Amino acid sequence: MAFIPQKDSFQPIQITDELNKLLDVLPPNIYHHIKNHPECNHLIEVVMDLGRLPEARFSEYAIYLGTTSISAADLEYTIQRIGTFSDDNRAGIEKTLHRISAIRNRKGSVVGLTCRIGRAVFGSISIIRDLVEIGKSLLLLGRPGVGKTTALREIARVLADDFHKRVVIIDTSNEIAGDSDVPHPSIGKARRMQVSTPELQHKVMIEAVENHMPEVIVIDEIGTELEALAARTIAERGVQLVGTAHGNEIENLMKNPTLSDLVGGIQAVTLGDEEAKRRGCQKTVLERKAPPTFEIAVEMLERQKWSIHQDVAYTIDTLLRSGKPNTEIRTVNQDGEINIAQETFDDTELLKTPEYRQQPKTATQPRGWRASGKMIPIPSLRSKDANKLGETLEFDKLLDASWYQFENKDNGSKAKTFNLEGEDLPIYVYPYGIGRSHLEQVIKILQLPIMVTKDLDSADVVLALRSYLKNQSKLRQVTKMRQIPIHGVKSNTIPQITCTLQKLLGVSEMQVSKTADLRLFTRGDNDDELEALEEARLAIEQIVLPKCQPVELLPRSPKVRGMQHELIEHYRLQSDSSGEEPNRRLRIYPI
């Protein structure tokens, strides 16, 4: 693991703890012991249990305060000077961030108090400031006392004050913004909604979105299934979520049936015989059920050492395949310099996706574009550089000059053609995260001189989803080592795959054809599917494009609507669905 220093500016950390206000509510004998302690500014909490010596806890050790045990009068002395206990047995001190938690006996009487110091640490999230400002939902995990709530409070202030976003804090125990109707200044311009009882937190979360138009919702301690479902509902409405959950690591959430929905949920899937044989696994496997509610997860290992999962979906999928996810370890040294430690690359862990497993390496040398040592696009009249190269061939003539043939399985050799520019065809593509059926369908219907290969060593180019490339450093390292170029695809749809493949062949600007080939967007020879696609095509070509008017199509099934969406995307138009099933239908909008 190598540390990479970040050049981003580090904000000096400023700590505000208002310790005197907590000491004022403690019995006099405890007050004097803490006040005279040389490290009182590093105090974490004070524990007072009936009949036991009072205890002061610091980050590395704990000490007893005097030799006198706590009496009922000592407990009552503190209770009378703090706020009212809520249903979760938590109270606070007016206009501070301190939290006092009670332990009760069977009769309901208080027999113990835990007085935790609440601190506003300004500048504490510089370590993940780049993740906060991109607008993705962020989940903080970690053991109690590691600083989750402190970080949550600072994130709310930064988003509200520095980025001028509408931030609403769901403050169940008044722990984030203090025990007062007036929020503590540490949250900046963020607004705070108090929750009367913890059982109603999920309702207040939904109420905040419906009534107050927030851009960011901040939640502390998501712990029930209803709260997890409310968080998903908020995320699907386009609101950024920042929250904490019970669990030290992301694997804890996977194993927790109550909170697993935060990371997409886990379900058992039974595979067919052929699919199980292709994957080389059992017929029953665990897979992620849905997209994660939180796109980024941060495991707070220590106060200045955090583990970052920038793509939760990738992390969950990798863990379910018994792999090791690609994570970052961020730390802050004494000079305020942010360092990132990344795991060293392991070639054996490369590309373990559900769709493809890496094949045994062969002794054949790479050929085609990559072996030539130059990556010159195949020229055509549609290319901006066609005149410079003096090329007069039409793109269709270039396709006719090549011939398409499957790999010879007997000797492993490739069938090649040779064009006027001296480049070998077809081009061998290694797909990563791209639907193989979609890719082969585009190649077959458009008759592109492209072959799909499962052997990375013999590939001329890697075709991968952009979302995978953002955090898949292993893939980038291996392709760089093998000198294989990577082409990113925006989404796993027919139009995006088609556009990328044609650019790969040298078409600099994809021109939308006057009449789309409907075979690209079907999943078979179903007449209903072709009829629905023909309806959409005629609406686009006869009304939306020439007359610039929106058109509403007939109700269709979800599967058919998905095909219509892809066809509309091919024409560079926007569409959405409206209505309720079974009358849900598409509406196409002009440019």
TrEMBL record:
CDD domains: AAA, R3H_AAA. Keywords: ATP-binding, Nucleotide-binding. Transmembrane segments: none annotated. It holds the Pfam family R3H. The keyword S-adenosyl-L-methionine does not apply. SMART domains: AAA, R3H. Residues 527-591 form the R3H domain. PANTHER family: KINASE-RELATED, P-LOOP CONTAINING NUCLEOSIDE TRIPHOSPHATE HYDROLASES SUPERFAMILY PROTEIN. This is R3H domain-containing protein. It comes from cyanobacterium endosymbiont of Braarudosphaera bigelowii.
